[in-house]
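Technical note accompanying the year-one report. For the benefit of new consortium partners, we illustrate the data format agreed upon in the data management plan: each record pairs a sequence with a structure-token string. No post-processing was applied to the example shown here.
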Amino acid sequence: MALGIPIVCSDAHRLHEPGGEVWVGVRTPAVEVPARAERIRAAVAAAGATAVNADTHPDEVALRFHDPAMVAWLREAWERWQRSGLTEDPGQDRVVPYLSPHPGLLGPLPAPTPVAPAALAGRWCFDTMTLIGPGSWEAARAAVDAALTAGDLVAAGEPAAYALCRPPGHHATRDAYGGSCYLNNAAAAAGLLRDRLDDPVALLDIDAHHGNGAQSIFWTDPHVATGSVHVDPGAGWFPHFLGFAGEVGGGEAAGSNLNLPLAPGSDDGPWLEAVAELCDFARGAGARGLVVALGVDAATADPESPLAVTAAGYRAAGELLGALGLPTVVVQEGGYDLDAIGELVVATLEGIDR
């Protein structure tokens, strides 16, 4: 039977060629590459899914959860980098942060807006791995439109829709980008779904790494319950400083965030128990809509995490999420095993589609 979930995508993702990552000072090959989306698109097409082109949405909808100054930097970063001459001297062909406004540097003083583009990159980016090239902004902006178009479909009556977003977005916060993420696609979808349904929604993240962006953006929002299952940052995994069980939300939203860190090596058993706990959390929060931040990098052979989830595990996770019976937007996040990424996404969507 053909996959019944519509697939929203944009060819603009091909414009984003990160050109590598700077890892502990060394430039290494990029893992967040255009082939990721192309492999997924081929797999969902082979599964019979209907493709939908992403519609352009107004900035006030697409970018509402991000600091306008950060958005302005992302929009202008590549042109400013070129104008600064850094592409010629020292010959850096991507935007890379130079230094960051660490609290230990600034003390009690607020961070001013620096002039140098290399310093501006550090003002907004929290790592050295998330590089910006000539088409990065256009791709990131189109990824948000894909998530919002999937939200439109669900708000109009589709039981579920899948946004094939690239670049991913779940590490982007209100005023910082990183982790190969520039704009938070899943947060945009959650905001749209909350507004259109006029009800609480849950944003559940099953990527191998903590969904720190949604946690930060909705930290004090009692109308969006956020939950994440991920490899334990306390065991030495990204994002290192966040993703612990004691982070539960703030203010009126205390209790509306749930983190379920797993030990490295965790396989289908503990991972699916955690996914089931996230589903119970969404029920308890009274969610009437669901956004799933779907990373398939928890899989056994993925080079970017130490978890060991199988394709059968992803299908079972999809069944658990689908059993919630909620209008559901699925937003693509991580997944870096090019040989398996399409199969894993299709397995999850088939589970949700049952």
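Partners are asked to follow this layout when depositing records. The chain has a mean pLDDT of 97.
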